[in-house]
Specification:
The protein is about 70% helix and about 10% strand. It has about 200 residues and is mainly alpha-helical. The protein has one domain. Helix 1 runs antiparallel to helix 4, helix 2 packs antiparallel against helix 3 and helix 3 runs antiparallel to helix 4.
Length: about 200
Amino acid sequence: MAALTNRGLFYTEELGSMIRVAQVLGLTSTAFLAGKVFASSFTAVPAILHAPAPLLAKQFKTVFDSDIYVNSIASVVGTGVFWFFAYRDPNPGSRHQILYTTAAALIAAAVPYSFMFLQPISRQLLQRADDFANTSLTDTAAESSLAEEETTHVLVDRWATLNLGRSLLCCVAALSATWAAVDRLEVVPAVGKIVGGADRMGH
């Protein structure tokens, strides 16, 4: 008598508790970073642009000082976790390894992007905040001496626009890592074999 057996049709990788914690931490920090960077351009900046130049410069400095620490920590956590997952993948070149590597690389790429495009503007705005330190925060004529230069409002608006590029990098990184995390089910070839009665009994 013959019987058809199928083995190894589907499999999923069993992750340990520490690995799951690291995965959640990496995904959470990256999603938080993407949302925070995006909100800076679409929520925070539009709100403070209504302020006079001295107050605007001070508000930008407050936002900048807060973001630089929070964003740095989230970036380090996300990059470290995703590099780790890419490194530990037993199948070089696998879809999961590519997705995690992409996520880590995009988060890391946000650092040179910030230095190249955002840092020069941030430096000018932080200098404006120092220059306006002894100026009334509601003085609308405070920038009269800066007539030959770009106004504080123009600089902040430009910073917000360029910050969208950093937001895009973080968002794609979050999506890539999330896809790698949820795509744990893999298909392997089904093994079909006709075995006799003696084979089924282990003989």
